[in-house]
Predict the structure.
Amino acid sequence: MEHPAPRTLAEIVADGAIACADADAAFVSSLRDTKGIDFNRAGDRMEVHAARHGAPDLATTGTIVAEIRDGIWTWCSDIVADAATRFEIPELSGPQAPSDELLAAARTLHGCTPGLLAPMSDGTTAVVCLDPPQPFGDTRTALITAAGTPGATDDIDRALSGFAAIRGLGVRVDGSVWHFSDGASARVENGRLRDIAGGLDIDQVRSDALLNSIESQMYLDAVFPGAAVTVDLEAGRITLRTPDGVVAPVQGTVLATVTGDTWCWGWADRNISATPGTTDCHQVREFGRREGIPVLVAPTLPLPLARELDLVSAAKPVLDKWFHSTVQFTADTWAIVVFTNRDLVLPPPTTAAVTAVINTIRGADLGGIDASRAVAAYARFRNLGIRATPDSRDSVSLQTQDGTVTVRFSADGGVLNATTG
């Protein structure tokens, strides 16, 4: 695949977005606990020295690509001057208002190494792009890092193509899947990274969680009807209260907050992410990084997407907390809380209960969920015996303590029905 030349500043930024996000993560990791960064300028070159706690100091060098003085950005890079001529992009020449986009474009044009703003004694701020080579991750790591970096995958097709060009990788697009010549691959859907190969994908996680979550909520509503949750974030205390006065402490975490049409993971919400009330939520991001699931590492998401993917249920097996509720934090912000409690233990499964649970998805469009996988995961969750029925490849039998439930699947992979006997 040939990567097209950029026509705008935004396209230059997109070209380097993934590589820059990866470089930043590697650089921050190398800094560890830094005590500060010192700069020593010599002409258009900069020496960079970082003192670190418990590790040797870090010393590197870079090129000054622009200067900022009195609120004006002035380029001083031959590479940028050449790009301005070749691509005819006005922001690459003449005085400019400083912006994150200019810094990102400078980094793209200088090898996507980390970019630093170095204050000088004369009041100038030097814009420095560090010299290559700098630490970076493999392709899969870079894609996962970019998925968790705001804005890095906004123009996903160009970002992936630009990343391949920067890394010198061949790339082939097969439908929605991008295959890189080093063996990495990623699936794109509706302009977003959907899955990064090398672990579970989001639909597998959703399949494994679906019925378990449904039954857990059914049981919660039966045992604590009309219950509401209160949260003390600083104490890490979550309490379940019913309208008739029953109070039960639970072990839980604030999974996400919702403001308007934006879903924000609890680990990413700056107002609460450092409190004990969100401690366990950080496991969701680590799971997403390990498995390569972009929606679990992106700090924020459109609320319709979070609902479409039922991220509340998807997070439950990660945290082993199968019950959830909502609580209003402010006039315009709600929180989703997932929790467990010693009094919330599902009773032994019966044919009536299993049939009712599975029939909640009868005939439903599950949007990518594999119904047979969901039933198998539910059977494991509830310790049910499971076997294919002898007269059909499109049905399975589940054995409960009081009988058998037969689940029949449709040709398109959904559930036709679940019956007893």
